[in-house]
Structure formats: structure tokens, C-alpha cells
Amino acid sequence: MTPSLLVPLVVGLPLLGAATTLIAGRRRRLQISISVTTLILTLALAIAMFVIVDAGTPLAVSVAGWPLPFGIVLYVDRLAALLVAVSSLVLLAVLLFSVGQGAADGDDETPVSIFHPSYLILAAGIFDAFIAGDLFNLYVGFEMLLVASYVLITLGSTESRIRTGVVYIVVSLVSSVLFLSAVAVIYGALGTVNMAQIAERMGDLPENVQLLLHILLLVAFGVKAAVFPLSFWLPDSYPTAPAPVTAVFAGLLTKVGVYAMIRTETQLFAESDVNTLLLCVALATMIVGVLGAVAQAELKRILSFTLVSHVGYMVFGLAIATPAAIGATVYYTVHHIIVQTTLFLAVGLIERRAGSTSILKVKGLFTAAPVLAALYLIPALNLGGLPPFSGFIGKFALFGAAAEVGTPLMFTLIAGGIVTSLLTLYALMRAWNLSFWREEDDSVETEARIQHLENAPAADEVSERRHIPRIMTAATAGMVAVSVGLTVFAGPLYEICERIGSGLLEPVSLVQLIQVEEES
């Protein structure tokens, strides 16, 4: 069996698992076993594929043997294999977290008969987007994400979840229409939707047509990635979902949009320069997002705004457009997937322990739950970019790549990135101080210092305090350990990301790769 035959399994395994869990109905233990096994196998498959592609050439397969440009091409290079592996790990950890929540609370938050099939379809959509070799298959991956995420974001059918779910799906559909329109125009102009063939033929189009197609795709992917000003939907959508759903959305869904932007900039439009526009968008995304975080009094909303702001770092690195910058962007993307997911899981534990996620209501958690304090503090310091954590390493690498270019705009972005990092640390440490260090009998002066936050959204929401199952704590602790591992093993991981950056800017001919696979 040739290694390329492993590639379709990345999507096929989750889809098969989703169908099997759906057949299993309400047999909770069987559904859990199937879901966990599926994600473990996918993780092992992704690691195996990464070892193969890192040692040689990328893997590509034309599904069912259809020739180009008609066949659906699946393509796995170092970037795709790395992101599939990281995504599988995150999806597995969040699944274990949700298993603990379901065992403790029943099916109110995550109805088992619906949750597991939808979750595995979401996983299949994410993996399909990462290994898509043509734009239409990438669009299909996005639509799988949309269908599954709409089900997951409205679990429980509360009024707030239905309302935010409607906003989420409307915005996503607008993005999908833009994306599909761009795909149709590209096919009409070039006669193919295969990304390798598009890259070869794009130079034949007039520059104004190239620019139009470029902007159309960037806008469509910008909505998915939540870049400013297309990020307005995210801070209200994510916090209302159940804790495990919010965690996986925050960690992965925006990164699918970032991944699509990376492919667009490095492969499809390598000769079309919109880097100045992207730099301005990156700066606005960083600053507006972090200012929104500073103005919040609810932990999930704080993290949602920091999620937006830190997407700006990834766009920043992409716009620098050097091998070092692309490598730093990939490293920062992996870092952010892990750390952002971990923080949302920690906040889910805080909500259960304290009955609220409002920093105005939660007090004294350091004494009451010291383990929970550590599970929040470590990823918070990491996201804030405090040395020696991976957040600092990624930002330092981005700033170094920008300094090598040395233009005034680059130095402006470096300054904006530093300010964003400091304000992120301020917002997260203020939440730490109020929720963990502040005691029940703190003075009136302390309360007066945070009075300006009393009108912040969702500041008064209080729910019932609930028991925290060990598996939820273990899943969160495991993710914290992985986030620390990004620092401990930063050297080897960053070398991998540098190879990815160099490879993206000097891609292998996918057309020739497919032809070799067909002949073999």
C-alpha cells in the first residue's frame, strides 16, 4: 500500500465514526468509545503522515482515480499533517472534557445522541479543509463545519444560543456565498479549481482580475478567521455555547480561516501583492480586539476578544511574506490553538466551581481551588507572551522577521504587537487578581476600582455551582501540559515550522505529484 492511500482516511475515519455513533443512538458508552477511538486513530494517522512527508515529498491522491482537473485532490504536506495532528489532539482533549461534563450533568448541555455525530462531522470538516487540494473541496470542508457547528452552538436550545446561532449561521452563509462566487469566477476564468493548476495559470489573467479574485477570497476567509472588521460576530457567538463547544470553536474554527489565507497568499497569489493591506488589517485586528477584551467583565467574552486580537498576529506574519515570517506564523498558529483551547477549558471549570464567569462575582478561588488557579494562570501567562513561554517565542520570532524587512510600517506593527501583548496580559491578570486573589471580605476600595465594569455584557449572570469531575480536570491539565511542551520543545518544533515556511514559498509541483501517484 502506497503512503498516499492513507490520506483519504483522515476524513473517512471521522465520517465513519459519525455514522456509527448515529446508529448507536442513545447508547452513551458505545458512542463515547467510538468517538474517542476515532480521534485517537486520526491522531496516530496524522503523526504517521507527518513523519512520511517531513522525510520526503508531500502526499497527494486524486480520489477514485479521476484525472485532473476533474478529480477531487487531497494533499498532505508538512503544514497539513501538523495541523491535522494538533487538531486531533485538541478535539480528543475537548471530547474527554465533554464526557466528564455529560456524566455529571446528563444530556442538558450536550445531548449525547446529537453531540457525538455532530462533533465527528465537525472534525471531518476541519480535516477536509486542511488536506483539500482544490478550492471546491475546501468549500465543502467549510460547509461541513458550518452544518455541524450550528448544531453544536445551539445545543440546549436556550433563547440566547438560538439567537447567537442564527447570527453565526447568517454570517457564515454570507462568507460561503462570497467563497463560492470566487470559486465560480476562478473556474470560469481558468477552467480549473485545483489549487496547483490555479497557481500555474493565474499569471495569464489581467492584474485587475487577479486582484478582484484575491480580495474576494481574502474577505471570505477573513470572516472565517474573524479579522477586523469582519470579526463582529464572534464575541457574542462563542460565549453562549456549552464549555466544550466554545473551547473547540475558539481553538480551531478561526484557524481554518487562517490556514486558507496561508494557502491563498503562498500558493495561489504569490505574485499578487496586497501585503500593505494585510498589515493594516492585522494592526486593526490586534488593537481593536484587545481593547474589547480590556472592556469586558466576563471571562468567556474576554477570551473571545483576545482570540480576535491574536488572529492579528497570524495575519501580521503572513503579510511579512518571508520564509522566516511564515514559519513564525505557523508556530504561533499551533501555539494559539493549544493555549486558547486550554484557557476556555479552564474557564469552563471556573464556571462550574464558582457558578459564574463574571470577574465581578467570582472571588477567593485561589484558596478554594488552588489546582484550578494553576490551570488558568499558566496558559494565561503564555497567551500574554510572558517569557519563556511559547507565546513569547512566537511573537519574538514574528517581530524579528518584521525587523529584518525594516520598513516604517513594519516597526509600527511591532509596536502594535507589543501593546497588544501587554494589554492581553493586563486583561487576563486582572481577571486572575479579581477571581482568585480577591477574598470575600475585600475592602470597598477594591470594589470601587472595578465599578466601571458593572455595565459590561453578561456581568450579572450567575448559574448553579456544580461538581467538577476528575476527567474534566485531567483533560484541562493535559492541555496545560501540552502548552508547556510547546515551550520545552520549542527548538525542534520551530525547526519544523521553519521547514514549513520555506516549503510553502517553494512548493512542490502538485500536478507532477498527482501524475506520479497515478502512474504508480
Automatic annotation (TrEMBL):
GO terms for molecular function: NADH dehydrogenase (ubiquinone) activity. The chain crosses the membrane at residues 6-25, 32-53, 59-76, 81-100, 120-153, 165-191, 211-234, 241-262, 274-295, 302-326, 362-385, 405-428, 471-494. InterPro entries: CPA3_Na-H_Antiporter_D, NADH_UbQ_OxRdtase, ND/Mrp_TM. It is a multi-pass membrane protein. It holds the Pfam family Proton_antipo_M. The keyword Membrane applies. One of its GO terms (cellular component) is plasma membrane. Keywords: Cell membrane, Membrane, Transmembrane, Transmembrane helix. Residues 132-418 form the NADH:quinone oxidoreductase/Mrp antiporter transmembrane domain. Its main location: membrane. GO terms for biological process: ATP synthesis coupled electron transport. It is found in: Cell membrane; Membrane. It comes from the Bacteria. PANTHER family: NA(+)_H(+) ANTIPORTER SUBUNIT D1 (PTHR42703:SF1), NADH DEHYDROGENASE (PTHR42703). Belongs to the CPA3 antiporters (TC 2.A.63) subunit D family. NCBIfam families: PRK12665.1. This is Na+/H+ antiporter subunit D. The lineage of its organism: Bacteria, Bacillati, Actinomycetota, Actinomycetes, Micrococcales.
